[in-house]
Each structure stands twice: as structure tokens, then as C-alpha cells.
Amino acid sequence: MGIYHRPDKLKDALHLLASAPVTLASGCTDLFAATEAAALEGQILDLTNIAPLKTIENCHGHWRFGAAVSWSSIVGAALPPAFDMLKAAARQVGGVQVQNAGTLGGNICNASPAADGVPPLLALDARVELQSVSGMRYVPLSAFITGPRQTTRRRDEIMTAILVDEGKAQGSSAFLKLGTRKHLVISIASVAVRLRLNGDRVAEAALAVGACSPVACRLGAVEAALSGVRVDTVEQHVMEADVRAALAPISDIRATSAYRLDGVPSLVRNALILASGRGKALE
Amino acid sequence: MIRLQINGRALNYEGDPRRRLSDVLRHNYRLTGTKVGCDAGDCGACTVLVDGAAVCACLTPIAQVSERRVETIEGLHPRGPGALQRAFLRHGAAQCGICSPGMVMAAEALLRDTPKPDRSQVETALSGVLCRCTGYQKIIAAVLDVAGSEEETSPKSGKAVGARVERLDGAAKLCGEEAFGADFVPDNALWVRAIRSPYAAARFAFSELSAWAARLGVQVFTAEDVPGRNCIGVIPRFADQPVLAERHVRMVGEAVALVAGPREVVQALDLTTAPINWFQEQSVDLQDAKTNGVKPLHDTRPDNILIAGVVSRGDAQAAFEQAFHQVHGMFETTHVEHAYIEPEAGTAWMEGDVLNIRAATQAPVMDRDDTALFLGMPQEKVRIRPAATGGGFGGKLDMSVQPLLGLVTRLTGRPSVMVFSRAESMQASTKRHPAQMTARLAADAQGKLTGMCFDGDFDTGAYASWGPTVAVRVPVHASGPYQIPNYQAEARAIHTNGPVAGAFRGFGVPQATVLQETLMDQLAVKLGMDRLVFRQLNALQDGQQTVCGQRLQTVGIGACLDALAARWAQANEEVAAFNGQSGRLRRGIGLASCWYGCGNTALPNPSTMRMGLTAEGVLCLHQGAMDIGQGANTVMAQIAADGLGVTVDQFTLIDADTAITPDAGKTSASRQTVVSGQAVLRAAQALRQQILQLVNMGQGAKIEIGPKHVTVSQGAQRRDVALRDLPLGAEGYVLMAEARYDPPTEALDAQGQGAPYAVYGYGAQLAEVEVDLDLGTVKTLRVSAAHDLGRVINPTLAEGQIEGGIAQGLGMALMEEYVPGQTCNLHDYLIPTVGDMPEVVSHLIEVPDPEGPLGAKGLGEHALIPTAPAILNAITHACGAQLTQLPARPDRVLAAIKAAALKAETA
């Protein structure tokens, strides 16, 4: 008989984690997909019954997403337009069934290069909150994921929340995903952009690309080039070389690396057009 | 203990809390309406509601539903179909039915929140459930029409054929009651799994396998335990495949041993720990296989050529020398997976000394014959009682679990169950042949086709399977339904260490048509002719001869092309207007035709149908034509009803069962409506004749079957027959008729000349696409499909075949690519989702064929054949991109767009 812990207190979960070799579980959409077995293996520590891990709130100058918040909860939450890209990504993670179960924290900790939740959170400069019996620490998301399936989470830590500072939850945003079919598709590439404006000029641009490098990445050079440009021409200031220089795509069963390098600049431009409120131009 | 609330019932669960909810529902509570298609959240067949929200039961640990409300399909409307399920029935939204419970539950979740959803909300709600049969159109229509009106669907006597009769087996599918391969698990059954080769080519030896098994508490079986002939094959002359490999494997996934034991034990085994020493050998791909001196896969086929098919007519060489215009091209296609949502599964048990096997299949009698041979048993000691089959498309024509279960049950005497995982299903089952093809087409100055050459290598994989059929069918059909006086075509099935390529909707013809129909477009452009007019000009007509020299009558291709003319003209204008506003999106339209001979190629292909009336007045139809979702159960009953002169609902259907139902042949080659349809019509007419003779009345009389009586009336005459007074036959009937029909064909000679088929069906499709010039993505906006069915037996089912065929053709065109070892799941192997489907407009054309029942022709495969080339032609029309490789993934389309731009610059 397997051992399955489903505590309702974070404290209990942290103690369990410190004392037993457990597998952390929340939505289980990745855990079960990785096995043909009829049951999960080993001791399971399920985080989905811990209320604070399942809430979205705005307090103390930041937005706080509990790590076990489901994609559907994100879609249904009242959030400012800077999170539109996160909602758009949420709507494209699997079908409704997976969105109802899969969680934001799970998506990040699973650390797939194609994780759709990561580019929007990078473009929001999100931090992750990690807790253990010995304390709490915060790590920028950009430093948390270090490679495919690799993070800096220690074995005794639970990711408890994803935080976005109020100052970064500003502006409009858009997310685009490139795949070979409409739904249920692992991204060939995904792009998240956020634009904060000052009048008709771009005050701050944040852009991130997924599935085109071992870890989703920000496009720093492109962001710098967009700063101060007129928003209605923003896409014209995207230099393809700047985009490509940030990427290190591989060829796989979904597409060649050359195609990813070719396609991402277009995807970035389209996302900028969407984020600047000119989506009609794409139809 | 976990407290559960399932369908309103409070239950205490005592087992492993880490188990999948789907596994607990199915095995602890026998709620088998929740289907398992992938165990990975990719297909949505296992969708249930937890606190009203749709989730995949396969991704939900049972511990997570503690104290929550779980609803399954069985709990939705326990007393028969509810409004949503009724809407599915009305619209023909269930075909094989394996995805139906998941679809219904996903739609239910939507409708509770949004009682009147729009189309896009429906699409979003259903986007997590894959369907491989329907093309989704009728499912969307059903969900949008839950409140729709109930029409009279049971037609009057004599009016069944042509009516939109609801699928007779539909309610069971929609209520989760239909029992598929994995749904019947006898108590005390041994659970069986296969140990399979991780290598494409290897020798192997077991070391201490029995000790390993004994230590784990399971039994193990290898080739040494096979009591009969360990060599099977769907075409006896080419049989070459061991059920369990002997010292040598030729493909990844080849079974080398079986383990059997208690379910929990066997399921938990790590089969990679089995003590097997593997000695990997160099594997052979299609290029290697054709190289001189390469070691052949089979000693009897030294050049790795399984078979070559040839059709030769006139003088193709001379035609090209004299051609006014000619084009040539090449095309490469890939392995395509059937991806039925039901992985192979079944059960075996002994009844006395008779081995019973209940499994998903398209060919029960072939299963029986080969299983008997394999087990060294007389055929009558093996009884195949097919399960409901959750999609086949050719992939369930070859045996899967049948001989494996047969072996375990025969040797142990105990019932056994085997359920393939998705990865195992994809590894072990057959595929569509990858093809490398070249062709040339020639025309005269008036645009009449004068010659064609076709040459194709078809990667048939490690074993023969249906490779011979592909090699023979391709040259017969590679001309398309056009008159081509000079023709030279050859197709070779070549062995490699790839997956076994077998039967898949069209037997190689879809691949050949991709090249042939794209060349048709290129030739039309070169001639400066409209692409539709060019096809109309060359379309085969009554009295003309095919490339096999067969003189045809009732040719429907002209009528199909004509039916598309109005939309062609309109779409041409719309596309021009759209593309006039320059942008990164370009639209295009493309056409392709098809023809396809129904049934075996120049070989006997009989079907036998039986019906009988019991003394109680129960009218039984022994319907042996396997219904794999296409609708044979309903179609046969409709034809039978009109033949006998009763209503459809009077029949009790007796399913395929090799002990009690005559052999209707296999469900393949678009033959059941034509061949079994003719058999059932003749049986029905014979039974009618018997009844009329009993009462000495003429043809126009009306027959009514009531309890224990048959009443026949004509005008004022009325005769009553008490069925109890009639002698009881051996089969249990007081009146019985049986008819056998074998379509007349003529053998092909060495030049491929003859009359390979008695009946052909025809079709043409018009695809409208939008291409993103920056990203190479293709959106199919609309497909207009005109198909000549001869006589439409059931318009709803016919549309369902067309929409489903188009979905598979679209998948083949744009996304489907099976790579052994890399795409053994339904998230790396992509099939179309609800959002990928275009609007489909079906035109059902009737050019009756006197050889078909009431004029009917086949449709199942025809519907897929033109789709891919029509889409490819539309892409070229939109942006100039000329693809030479399938699927047209975005990266390949973008590369082709760039190549076309470069060519235009340098030209």
C-alpha cells in the first residue's frame, strides 16, 4: 500500500518533506503523464489541500499566486491587463481538463523548456517563494530555472508562491504560441510581451521566448531597442539579429532550429501588435 | 481509507491512494464507461467531473477526490440518454464511440455553466478530447443543438434506405454501456503483458527467464511454448511474422515473451529487468534495403522486395516523346499512425474445449483462422466474439492481442486479459507505408492526358502484413479517375527494420494520389487551363477504359467535379479579393479527385448474411460485418429492412461471432456496404419470398411481424401465419434465409490488365486554406467534398465518413509523422483537434451502380484520399510553395515558401 500525504497545513508538509523521501505532487498532470503505471511511485506529498497555496491575492505591493493555483483559477481571476499574457498561456496549456488540474508551481518546477507559464512570468519579473523548515527565501524566476528539468529548489524546499511586484504588473500584455495544431500542442516557440507606456511611447518593454533555448529567456537587446519608440510602430523596431542572438534552439520532431530562428521574430512582432491593442491588424 | 462520492453514491475506498482515478473507477467499481486512451492526459477519453469540473481521470490520483463529488458517464442519465446524449444521436456525433463518454462529459461541464454556448465556446470546451472518427463537426453541432427538436427517426417500412436513421448501437455508446476490448474483465483473469524488443534489429537469448518470473510471482511464455505454427500473416501466401520472436527481432516493439499473473503484480512489473541478452545488429532503412549486398530481412526475399505491382498500358515512353506539355515530380511521405483512441485490448477464456477470444478487431474470421494455426487447434475450437471496436481504420485488421491471449488461456486454462498501453499500441501496431515516389504526366495541346509514369518504393517494414495489397493497389489507382491511354506504373513493397506497414484507409492510394494530383495542378498551370476544367476534361466517362483496360459504367467522377464548380468559381473570386489586400496571410484553393475500387483486388471477397425468424416472432439479423464506427450495424439493418419490407427497429442484431454468425469478410477496402450490403439485401429478399410463398401472395404484399405471428396483406387479402406451426430449423429459426455474395472480378495479367473490382466509388474535394507567409502555418478554412455513393443508404453516416476522412487526410497533410521511438504518445504524435477542422460541406452524389445493393458504392476510404493533395494544391495556389515531403509542418512550408520566392526571383 502506498503512502500518500495530503496535509492541509504547510507546516506539516514542510516537516514531512524534511523527514521523508517524498515526491511533491500537485496537479499530477506531469507526474502521471511520465509513467504508464496505474499508480504514482514512492511516497507522495500532495500540496493541493493547503489553502494558502491555492489563492491569488494582491497584498503588500505585490501579486501573490499560490504555487498550487490551477490554470483555470488564473483564467477566472480578476487581474490587471499585465497578466493577460499569463491568462492566454493558461488557456493554451492542454485542454480544459489539464487546465483544471495543472498548477502554476508545477509548471515551473517541472522546468520544461517549453513550459507555457514561464515566458509570461519572466516578462513580469516574477520571483518564486521557497520555504523549508529552516526558513523562507525568494529567488528571481530567471535564476530559479537553470536548465531543462533543473531548478535551484533544494530537496527540502517547497515552492509556495510566485510573486509579481505591483510595479511590474503594469501595462498591457500578450502571449502567442506557435504549434502545429490548434489545441493540445507543445510549443515550437512561445512569446510573451508586456508593454508599459508613457503617453504614446513605450516606457518599458518586457519580452520572453519559450521553447527556443534550454531555459526560456528574456530578449534584453530587443527590449532596449523598443524603449521610447512610438507604440503604434513598436513592431518595426524589432531587429531579427537581436532576437536570434538570444536564442539557442534545437531541431526536434516539431520543427528545425532554423525555423525557430526564422519564426520567432515574426511571432515577437505579432505579439507586440497584439499587446499594443492592434490585434485586428493580424486578422 | 478514502471517502468517495461517485455518481451520488458514498463509497469507502481501501486501496492504494496513489492510483489513477480512471483505474479505480474501472477496476474497483466496474464503471467502464470512463475510457482510457492514453494514460497521459492527451486524449481526454477518460474525462469525468470532479465537483462539476472536467478533469482527466487518468491524471487524477484517487486520494485527490477524497470527499469530492465525482461524476462519470454512468451517473449522467442512468435511465437512458438525456438531452445532450440524444443530440449526439440525432446528429450522428458518435461513430466508434470510444471518445463519446469523454466528449459528453466535457460538453456537460460546459452546458452547466453556459446553457447556450456559441460555437467557439463549444470548441474550447471540447478541445481536450480527441476524436479520430468524426472530424468533430457533428459533435459541435450536437452540443449546439441540445435543445433541438426530436424528429421522427424511425422510417416507415420500405423507406429505410436513404433515411437519416440514428445509429442503432448509438445509445449504448453514449451512455457508457458499450463494452470495448478493455471493458470485460472476468473475475480471476490472468493479466498479460508482452516483453518487447527495444531494438530494431537484434539477436537475443534468455537467461534464467523462468527463475526471474518465479521470483516475481508471474508465469512467462516464449516461442518455445507455442503449440502450433509461430508464423502468422493476413495474406497466407506471405505469412512471415512470429507472434513471439525466436532468437531474432526485426523491429522495435516485437514481442519476445509474455508474462501473466495477478493484475496488480503484472501491472507493476518493470519488464526491462527481464533477463534477456540482446545482441544488437545493424538495422536497415529504405535506402539501405535497396542497396546491393545488404543482408536481407527474410532469407526468402533476398533483395528485400516483398512484392512489386505493375500496371502497363499503351506506350508511355512514346507518349512522353510526343507530349505537348509534360511535368514530373517526386514526393516523400512518412509513417502515419492510425491513432484510434482505443488501444488494442481483449479477453480470452475457455468454454469446455473451445477457446473464446473477445477483442477489438476488423476481421473476426481471419483472427480465428490464424489463431487456430498458431495454437495448433482446429478452427472450430477457436471462437472469436469481437468486442465493440474503438476505431480501426485498417490498424485492427492484423491481429494484436488475440494470439497472445489465446496462448496464455490455452496453456493455463484460465481467462486472460491484455490491454495495450498507448506506447505499446503505437509501437506494435501497423502504420501507413512511407512512400518515395516519382511520376510524370503528359498532355496534348488540347489538354488531354496522353501518358503517365509512376514509380514508388513503399517501406513495408519488418513483416509482410498488407504490403502486397498496397503494392498491387497503388499502380491500379495511381492514374486517378482519369482517362490515360499510355501508362506505366510500378510500386514495390520493401522490407526494412521499421514498423510493419499495413492497411490504413486507402492501402497506399492516398500517398500516390498526393503526387498524382499535385502534378495535375502543375500540368494545368503549364497548359494555362483552369485546374477544375482540366480535371473535368480528363475525367473518366462511362464506356471508357481504365489503365487496367477495364471498361467502366456508372462513373461518377464527372458529376463530383461538376458539383464543386459553383464553389470553385466563387472561392476563386474570394481568394483573389482577399489576397489583393497585401498582408502576411495568403489564401488559396485546391482540388483533388479520387477513385477507389471496393473490395479485394481481383481476388474472391465473399460475404454471407443470415436472418431468421424465431417462433416467438423475433427477427434476428446475423450481422457479421464488423462495425468499427463506420456504421455497418445500421446500414445493414436499413438495407435488410427494405429488402424484407419491415421497419429497421424490428431487427434484433446478432453481432459478429464466428460460432453463430456467418463470415461477412473483413471490414476493409470500403467493401462492407457494397459486398455485405448486397448479401444482406439478397438474404432479406429471400426471406420475403419464403414468407410470400407460405401464404401464396405476390410481390406487392405487405409483411407485418408480430409476436408469434406474421401477417401478410395485399388489398383486401390478409393471411396470418402462426410461427409455432412452422418446423424449427437447426439454427433456432422457423424461417431463415442466408445469402452469399462475391463481387465479380477478373484477374490481372502480367501487365496489370483485367477487371480488378466490380464496383468503384468516386469523389472530389475542394480545399480552401490560409497560409501565414511569415510562420508557414496553414489553416484549412473549408473543404467542399463531393462523393459519388451510388445510392446513399444513410446520409448522416455518409457525412460522418466524409468529415472523418477529411480529418485524417488533413492530419496526414499537415501534422502526422510517426517516428519510431520518438512519437509513441498522443502529444508528440499529433492528430487534428476540434480546432484544426475546417467547415466541411458534403455533396452526396448518386450515380447508381447495378452491381451494388440498390446502386450503392463504397465510401470509407474515398473520403480521405483527395484531402491531402487538395490542401497541398491550395497551399501552392496561396503562396507558390511546392511541398515534396509530408507532413507539411510549418517549418517545411516556410522553407518551401522561401524556395518558391527564390525561384521566382531567379526566373
Overall description:
- Chain B: This is Aldehyde oxidoreductase.
- Chain B: Belongs to the xanthine dehydrogenase family.
- Chain B: Residues 1-76 form the 2Fe-2S ferredoxin-type domain.
- Chain B: Keywords: Iron, Metal-binding, Oxidoreductase.
- The complex is a heterodimer of chains A (283) and B (907).
- By secondary structure, chain A is an alpha+beta fold.
- Among the domains of chain A are: 1-46; 169-282, CO dehydrogenase flavoprotein, C-terminal domain (Enolase-like, domain 1).
- Chain A is built from eleven helices and 14 strands.
- Chain A has a five-stranded antiparallel sheet.
- The longest helix of chain A has 19 residues, at 257-275.
- With 907 residues, chain B is α+β, with helices and mostly antiparallel strands.
- Among the domains of chain B are: 1-153, Beta-grasp domain (Ubiquitin-like (UB roll)), CATH 3.10.20; 536-546 and 554-598 and 756-907, Aldehyde oxidase/xanthine dehydrogenase, molybdopterin binding domain (Aldehyde Oxidoreductase, domain 4, 2-Layer Sandwich); 607-741, Aldehyde Oxidoreductase, domain 4 (2-Layer Sandwich), CATH 3.30.365.10.
- The interface between A and B is large, with 48 and 61 residues.
